[in-house]
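Model it.
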Amino acid sequence: MQSNKKYFEDQAFTGKTDRRAKSYYWNDIIKYCEYFIYEESSVLEVGCGTGDLLHKIGGRRRVGIDFSKAMIRQAREKYSDVEFHEMNAELLELDEKFDVVILSNLIGFLGDIERGFYELNKVCHPNTKIIITYYNYLWEPILKLSEWIGLKPKSPPQNWLSQVDINNLLKLAGFDVYRTTRRMLIPVNIPIISWLFNKYIAKIPLLNYFCINTFTFASPIPSADAAEVADKYSVSIVIPARNESGNIEDAIERIPKFGRSVEIIFIEGNSTDDTWAKIQEVATKYADTHNIKIDRQDGKGKGDAVRKGYEMATGDILMILDADLTVRPEDLPKFYNAIASGKGEFINGSRLVYTMEKQAMRFLNILGNKFFSALFTWLLDQPFKDTLCGTKVLFRKDYDKIKVNRSFFGEFDPFGDFDLIFGAHKLNLKIVELPIRYQERKYGETNISRFKHGLILLKMCFFAARKIKFR
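Modeled.
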């Protein structure tokens, strides 16, 4: 530890802390971290060096700590817009909680990584996001060779950890890893070649395994259980309904009581049957026992209906229940328990785990769902089983942020599923899938066109790939 400190002190005194010579490499790390930072975020960087990363990213409050006095002195001289403290990563003394904590290429130099991770609990609230960048351990011989032949300055011996090691140490310290990714095959700027390899070839499965930089996303393991949060939050359930007259009253009768209160919002969408009349009838009939709101959508598509319902919602937690009731209303408390207890911040229903009823989903729909699941797993760097399940749950405060930034991905999702998933990813929410039993439709016919709507969803994925994978 002392040898590491002397190394960085010497680096500061000799003026070798300027990253301009390695700007191509470091700028990619900064760019990727910045993608998940919002202007209202408070950000702490542990092991900030001279503060270059903190200076370039957004955030309403930015704080950096480093154990090198010389590094901190340089950081303060260079960047007056960031707050810096001389402090050991393995003994944090900050009386403040941050939205995002970044450890950029630091853990290789820590004497006790588990202790360093454990200390992060002092600066985390339940929704804090930890972003850890680190060398891919497969690059160790290449980096050693680069130092030996003089292409890379010599550095002190580092801890070389696999992704499994990092995940395990975080778990021991009380953090849950919810996403990992790798970037950059060529860490120096070779005109055209580096751009081609790093922007496109590095994103190809298997080849991606050899990228130099690994990024680990983690959040505190929740301490609350279902019993503790049983009545903590109010809930708004939005039910988009088009030609679903026979399911309206059934939905009301089958939705259980849970949370602090339940608000049910029906949004009727240009039906050709008596769905609107039935909604009005049911709202009047159950007015004394249920909190029901109703309206008719102005545009078309489920996504438009959901957005209108969310604008009317007053609950802390927002839920979607498809009016065809193929997802059982009785399962909604499971979604509540998952998000209220902190096990996830965006709960996505998964219909492809349990055995389905025979006519619940046609064969081509199953194939389509599996295709989009594989595509999303690649796009968002985390496993997805079912992207098109209609039941999705998130906090209203997080939806408000997604809404503000909706233009980033565009507003042409007719169903709203991809709109919410992409938005949750950009917001760096912890996305968790919850298996549910998928049932046959008892009334009416599906409003989904497999091929027409499938092409629209595919177009959305290509557009999102440019914004997420190939930016």
